Amino acid sequence: MVKSSRPQTQEQKKIPANNSDEKVRIFDTTLRDGEQSPGISITPEQKIQIAIKLDELGVDAIEAGFPIVSHGEAHAIKTIVKQGLRAEICGLARTVQSDIDAAIACDLNYVHTFIATSDIHMKDKLKMSRKQVLEKAVWAVDYAKKHGMQVEFSAEDATRSDRPFLMQVFQAVSAAHADRLDIPDTVGYATPEYISSLVRDIRAATGLPISMHCHDDFGLAVANSIAGINAGASCAHVTINGLGERAGNASLEEFVMALQCLYRRKHNIKTTLLYETSKFVSNTMGIVVQPNKAIIGENAFGHESGIHTHGIINNPLTYEPISPELVGRKRWLQAGKHAGAHGIRAMLEDFGVKPTEEQLRLIVEKQKNLADKGKAITTSELLSIAGEIMHNAKLEEKFKLYDFHIVTGMSIIPTAVVRLNIDGKDFIASEIGVGPVDAALKAIQKIAGEMANVKIREYRLDSITGGSDALAEVSIKVEDKTGNVVSARKSGEDVVVASVQAMMDAINKVLLREALYSKS
Ligand code: KIV
Ligand code: ZN
Questions:
Q1: How far is the CA of 213 from the centre of ligand 2 (A)?
Q2: Which pLDDT tens digit goes with each residue over 200-247?
Q3: Interhelix angle 379-390/357-372, nearest 10 degrees
Q4: Given this chain, do its domains 22-285 and 399-517 carry the same CATH topology?
Q5: Is 33 in the pocket of ligand 1 (CB under 6 A)?
Q6: Selection from 161, 107, 105, 106 nearest residue 137 by Cα
Q7: What is the mean pLDDT of the chain?
Q8: What is the pLDDT of residue 71?
Q9: Residue 213, ligand 1, Cβ within 6 A
Q10: How far does residue 382's CA lie from ligand 1's centre (Å)?
């Protein structure tokens, strides 16, 4: 057995007791654990773009990847190191020479090295004894330190490891001059209570800064990370959108906002960039965020119910714990069967439309009848209902969809023919595209031309239910000629129909805004 006989360095001894005025260190592992999410594969160029975004967001450290896995990975990590970002850049390595050498070859000066310490991993995966694991851990830390690296050591599956053995490993690597210790809850098995006691013991035994690395298999990743911080850990490994192996890691957005708002702890994250960063990662990695996800889900600041919208209009804090602007978002209200007069009035007033009490009652009734038939009402449809009831032709949807046809297939260029009616006149256009949606949206834009010169800024397709007959939700953002961005969403079983309807709604909103706010 390797004796942990080396004394602790002065640097290690000087580490202050964790106190709540210190900033919590955010170690982002979106580009390593996040990229290990099933189904994700991104190019080196995309990795670099994400690293730059993370740096802008203010994370303290970026785990840029696992250098040994491929040439592309190593190239991306090396390029990220060269960017001269403010964040520290780290690479993952097993406790073997080839991995640590691969990290050194990427010009990294910070390595995160790990070996499993639980009996199940040692017996059934590593096929190694406790003695061998302990020796390898110490060897790797020593080797990396001798190469001038900052070393963070992880005992993989720490929370299912035999506690005395885990302590022995952590003490041995700290004696080998590891700079930081990480506690991975590899299969998300720990409870907050267990994490607290583990962190207290490890901190007392080693005096080293401690990171938490929590997985979300039981939905406790954020709670466990916070329990660790409250017990004296100074850092958490987190990912954007909670990406990561299986159910993912602790989500950066949720962890940071809970720390700030519920525990009054400080950090370096620019929270107003959270939504934008989440979108960027979601679009780049191709993993959709569930609509009801805290902080960054589409519905996190959306309201339909009449009781809620009434409260929100009087004082947003009635039904929102934080202001959406704090995380770079805007609140939105939705028409529908739960919507009440206050919400509908607020939605109409957003367009400068002021119905009388009686008109409002009729508008609410009519949109509820439509919602009862299972129809999700778009804003331009709501305005159109208001137009009918208020006898205001300006509120009529200008663009009406008559019909469209799509031809697509493996040996055919997808082509769309769209027929619209604008102010009583019929227009037909055809376009080709990379797929049926692209072709249809281009054909609409061709007809819209100068009248509603819009550029698509964002298009998202989310599957709401499973199966090939899944209900899909299309969210679209268009920019008008003055740079205003308007968003629209539509759900339906046919993605092309939903996309066309969302696009029509977005264009109608642009035109309605122009008409309602123009002087004439
Ligand atoms: O979850 C885990 O145990 C890991 C290790 C590599 C730290 O990701
Ligand atoms: Zn992990």
A1: 6
A2: 999 999 999 999 999 999 999 999 999 999 999 999 999 999 999 999
A3: 130
A4: no
A5: yes
A6: 161
A7: 90
A8: 94
A9: yes
A10: 50
Task: Determine the distance separating the centroid of ligand 1 and the alpha carbon of 186, expressed in angstroms.
Answer: 6
Assessment of whether the complete model's pTM goes beyond 0.85? no
Q: Is the pLDDT of residue 518 over 70?
A: no
CA 9, CA 175: separation in Å to the nearest integer? 8
Question: What digits encode the pLDDT tens for the residues 5-18?
Answer: 334 433 334 444 44
The atom number, within ligand 1, closest to the CA of 158 reads: 3
Q: Which residues surround ligand 2, an ion (CB under 5 A)?
A: 33
Whether the CB of 216 sits within 6 Å of ligand 1: no
Instruction: Determine the atom of ligand 1 nearest the C-alpha atom of 33.
Output: 8
List the domain boundaries for the chain: 22-285, 302-395, 399-517
Q: Does domain 22-285 have CATH number 2.40.50.140?
A: no
The one-letter amino acid code at 95 reads T
d(CA 91, CA 101) in angstroms, rounded, equals 11
Residue 92 and residue 32 in contact, taking contact as beta carbons nearer than 8 Å: yes
**Mean pLDDT to the nearest integer, 96-114:** 98
CATH number for the domain formed by residue range(s) 399-517? 3.30.160.270
Cα distances from 477 to residues 144, 205, 489, in angstroms, run 48, 54, 9
Backbone angles phi, psi at 459, to 5 degrees: -135, 125
Give yes or no for residue 351 CB within 6 A of ligand 1.
no
pLDDT score of 13:
41
Choosing from 156, 160, 243 the residue with most ligand 1 atoms within 8 A of its CB, the one to mutate for a pocket test is: 156
Indicate which ligand has the atom closest to the C-alpha of 66. Answer: 1
Ligand 1 atom showing the smallest separation from residue 249 Cα: 1
